[in-house]
Amino acid sequence: MFEPEAWKNDVVVGAGDAVSEPSTDETVTDSADSAAEPATEPPIGESAPAEAAPETEPELRPQESEESAVRETPVSASEEPEPEDGEYQYKSGYTQRIYADAHYAPADESTVPPRYYTPPRRPSKVSPEKKPRKKGLFLKVACLCLVCALLGSVGGAALVGRSFSQRIAALEEAQENRPSVVLGTDSGSTKKVSSAESDSGKPLAQLYEQACQQVVGITTEVTVQNFFGQTSTSAVSGSGFIISEDGYILTNYHVIEYADKGDNEATVILHDGTRYEATIVGTEESNDIAVLKIDATGLSPVTLGNSDEIRVGDEVHPVGNPLGELEFSMTNGHVSALNRVINTENGGDAINMFQIDAAVNPGNSGGPVYNAEGAVVGVVTAKYSSTGIEGLGFAIPINDAVRIAEDLITKGYVTGKAYLGVSVETQYNAMYAQYYNMPLGAYIAGVEKGSCAEKAGLQTGDIITRVGDTTVESYNDLKQAMKAYSAGDSAELEVYRADKSMTVTVVFDEAKPSN
């Protein structure tokens, strides 16, 4: 096939035309023809190898556009005019490298940052120059502080020394004027030793010596039967104190309860170890008071104080036999509160007591509570016992106990106690009241014939809700309210009957052992 000589080296390619393939019977060895074939784009990120064009032969170059896969060095406008769209352009002597990947550019030619771009380092900050410190100012401040410290120490030492001297002088003067007791003698000379005193000036050692002559131990035996019918006997110990020279002993009822209800005897033990078989003179279970009598004379009775005059904070000293083994132990404390209404463990009536913080334990029951002058102001009766709770002891005021004891000694029972003459259902409570839609109170289960209750018109099924100005919600409330009255006193009772409330007036009878 004939080809013009000029077409062997120069080829004009249209911008929208494709280069035709050579015929099968001709072999094309020209590198420009092979470069004109459309190149297959390699994967993104991989560069196509650049083919070096002969220096003497021109290469084919389609007009450059946005979709072109060829990158070249731009030609200045002065060297070559800008071609128009669709116009063929002839390039000769093109020696630039051709790349198949339109997204790839060598690092030395690209102005776009690489895929993994690392920003340039920021210039390091230049630290400002530090101004030199003035050493003279620090030295001046240090010297000033030192001078102030020296002046302060000298002034403080002078004040402390003066105060200390005054304190020493006051202590020496107090030591000279402090009373002392004689504990013993040595080779005819008397040795004076200071002793601790109570708040009012009575030495505690002297108070304890006095108490040992007045406090007694009381033991009784209780016989119990186990599940297999076997019986065993154990001792019950408590305390008491002498109230007369001829052998009357005051104690708690629960200390001698087993002896009173059984065939056991109560034994009284003095400080010197002398033992006496005691006779029970009288008991008042509702107030936890009992009086015993031993066949002895010339005893040392206690001095009775006035419990109406005690105040919170007064010093008190219980003496007794804690645990039944530590005989004649004395503890110290103060009155913590007054007028505590306490129910004892045996389920008796609520009793008015005063509270103390002195240590008391089982075995102290029935023992005296001394005040600072050595007079008895109460009878130890109860201790609030629970895990982790201490310092809660209670005592019956001595005025109440002595009044009961005098009646027991002279008449065998407590005289003047108000008596209503009704039996009360103790199981009536808030649950029953709510279920039957009735008020809380003392539910009357029976009325004694000829009693003041029958005379006042009380009936079985009535509910007493008030006695005088005191609200009644239970049987214990009724008994506590009646303690404010004596035999012969009159009181107004509010009674609930058949869905109505009414008021009746009653004149109390006297409670006797027979009723």
Mean pLDDT: 74
Which bin fits the share of residues in helices?
10-25%
Strand count: 23
- Sheet with most strands: 6 strands, antiparallel, barrel
What fraction of the residues are assigned to beta strands by DSSP? Answer: 25-35%
> What's the arrangement of strands in the largest beta sheet?
3-4-5-8-7-6
Radius of gyration: 59 Å
State the gist of this model.
By secondary structure, the protein is an alpha+beta fold. 19% of the residues lie in helices and 26% in strands.
Q: How do the helices and strands line up, and which of them pair or pack?
A:
Blueprint: H1 6-9, H2 31-36, H3 135-177, E1 181-186, E2 189-193, H4 204-212, E3 215-225, E4 231-242, E5 248-251, H5 257-261, E6 266-269, E7 275-284, E8 289-293, E9 315-320, E10 329-330, E11 333-343, E12 350-356, E13 368-371, E14 376-383, E15 393-397, H6 398-411, E16 418-419, E17 422-424, H7 430-435, E18 442-447, H8 452-456, E19 463-467, E20 470-471, H9 475-482, E21 490-497, E22 500-507, E23 509-510
Antiparallel strand pairs: 1-2, 3-4, 3-6, 4-5, 5-8, 6-7, 7-8, 9-10, 9-11, 9-13, 11-12, 12-15, 13-14, 14-15, 16-23, 17-18, 18-19, 19-20, 19-21, 21-22
